[in-house]
Amino acid sequence: NSWRKAVAVLGKPIADHQAGVSTMDSLTLPETPVILAGGLGGPAVMFTVTPMRNGLTLGATNAKASAKVLYGQVFAGGIRSGWIGGVYPAIAACPQFLCLGPAYHLYASFSGMIGGITLASITESAIVYG
Predict the structure, then answer these.
(1) Beta carbons of 94 and 47 less than 8 angstroms apart
(2) 107, 120 Cβ separation under 8 angstroms
């Protein structure tokens, strides 16, 4: 019996469950820092790791090369050359990071933790895979 009560609580935000409020009445938009972290922070991270991604791509075609050789190739044209091609994954990451953070908080505000995870993952999959 206590297991059933715990499962019933998991689908609702704790404050709503304790107050007896309908979960659809508690729809809240994510706070500004959460939106900014998803919209700006995620793409910035994707752009920052571009040299590593470029090195891994080169390593996939030359398994015998050392990390020093691979990163030498990545930065062969100067320090800026390491970030060649980094803008495109950063742009593509923006909708994904918005779904992973702010959309989760939006969905969780009316469907609880499990509902937020489920709906955010469905939204992200719809964006990435069409």
Answers:
(1) no
(2) yes
> pLDDT tier at 7 (50, 70, 90 boundaries)?
very low
Per residue in 19-46, pLDDT (tens digit) is 444 445 566 777 888 788 888 888 899 8
Full-prediction pTM beyond 0.90? no
Q: What is the 3-state secondary structure (H, E, C) of the chain?
A: CHHHHHHHHHCCCHHHHHHCCCHHHHCCCCCHHHHHHHHHHHHHHHHHCHHHHHHHHHHHHCCCCCHHHHHHHHCCCCHHHHHCCCHHHHHHHHHHHHHHHHHHHHHHHHHHHHHHHHHHHHHHHHHHHC
